[in-house]
Amino acid sequence: MENVTEGTWDTLPERLNDKIRQTLRELNFSHMTPVQSATIPLFMSNKDIAAEAITGSGKTLAFVIPLLEILLKREAKLKKNQVGAIIITPTRELAVQIDEVLSHFTKHFPQFSQILLIGGSNPVEDIKKCKEHGGNIIIATPGRLEDMFRRQADGLDLVSSVKTLDVLILDEADRLLDMGFEASLNTILGHLPKQRRTGLFSATQTQEVENLVRAGLRNPVRITVKEKGVAATSTQKTPTRLQNYYMICKANEKFNYLVSFLRQRKQEKHLVFFSTCACVEYYGKALEAFIKNVKVMSIHGKMKHKRNKIFTEFRKLDSGILVCTDVMARGIDIPEVNWVIQYDPPSSA
């Protein structure tokens, strides 16, 4: 799609539901981003979508809004134990974030129940929640969702529940595959009805993503959204307004420079990326010792139960340092971050 310009929500070919428009006003979203104006009309006209757009381009609303519109137009209302939509995303932090965004909308639609199925929580509790409250809209990480499909012996028949599925969203699809979820995704896809709308969103286009498009989507419309002033042929992965800096120093001086940089900016909010979970553990403790009167928190993929709590707590802080691995590298929306520091060279850029 070329020459897609932002407009107000009123410029969409089909008028949005009044309660969705009300929520957009409450969230102060008066205009669409390019990925939203490109995707929403196509999704609402029953097309499968394969969208390539950089992180931070507004992809979440690009699928949340048409997902709700499609469910609202269902002839038969969803019963408690029927699933109408599934959103699959690579990390639990991203799933929590999407769940929060969706909650702003579903509070106006009490007929829809939503459920978050992610690692780090007790699967027995998830089963209990599913049985008691249902989940018309599921937001999940692949491993936990795949596990839920195997829980018939525990009284959860998700295989039957998804027969009513209208919408499947694969968010950050390239990251889903990078993290080794291909087998889980194929298992999940095998349980879902073929007659559905599927949206796949990705920051990069790889052969693996293309294979997933072929396996999971039917005659998709392909959308590539670039920022203004970026050539259509360029492989842009970072926002043009993001300013990048680098520092050259000797290896044995690197940590000293990091401490000095952060000490000068104690009132600000920072993300510091390291390459491994062990580095996060080690340097997190070191920064805590060297930088006084600053909240230093650590998060990495091997943390089982604390990750959700730490992520939520850091988002609420006015200042502080979050030491992390690339589990936090994609799609995470943390308010008012001043500096993102890459201590080790990234494994992918």
3D architecture notes:
By secondary structure, the protein is of the alpha/beta class. The chain folds into 2 domains: 217 residues, 3-Layer(aba) Sandwich (Rossmann fold); 92 residues, Rossmann fold. Helix content is 38%, strand content 14%. The protein contains 13 helices and 11 strands. Strands 3-4-2-5-6-1-7 form a 7-stranded parallel β-sheet, with helices on both faces. The protein has a 4-stranded parallel β-sheet with strand order 9-10-8-11, sandwiched between helices. The longest helix has 15 residues. The protein is globular, with a radius of gyration of 21 Å. The two termini are 25 Å apart. The N terminus is likely disordered.
